[in-house]
Write a structure and sequence with these properties.
Length: about 110
């Protein structure tokens, strides 16, 4: 399923942290680190609400494949892959904006 634009924080706020999604996530299964699974990425989204994001957290979000396997596993029905995809898009825009020369800023 193609990702759609959602409110990442709203989706992340519905999580009950059961962890069912981790066992279908290819990146979590590859590295076995919570930050590289859906649950960890939702936590990162909530933790970065104020714009603070460490390079490690940035990498953890960026390595999501947006495959959608986690969406099927979530008993709450959270649109996890779209939340991560939207958060990644917002981050990319923020980074691109930060790199624009001052003369190009509106
Ligand atoms: S969409 Fe991202 S978080 Fe969800 S299963 Fe795929 S790689 Fe993991
Ligand atoms: S399966 Fe859903 S409710 Fe459970 S940890 Fe994953 S995202 Fe949260």
């Amino acid at each position: 399923m193609r990702p759609i634009r959602v409110d990442p924080e709203e989706e992340a706020g519905k999580c009950v942290w059961c962890g069912f999604c981790e066992f279908v996530c290819p990146t979590y299964l590859a590295v076995r680190e919570r930050a590289y699974g859906p649950r960890g990425r939702l936590r990162i989204i909530l933790a970065s609400r104020n714009g603070n994001l460490t390079p490690a957290a940035f990498r953890a979000l960026g390595t999501c494949l947006v495959c959608g396997a986690c969406d099927e596993a979530c008993p709450v029905g959270i649109n996890i892959s779209s939340a991560i995809w939207t958060a990644k898009a917002k981050l990319a825009m923020r980074v691109r904006g930060a790199r624009r020369p001052r003369s190009e800023l509106p």
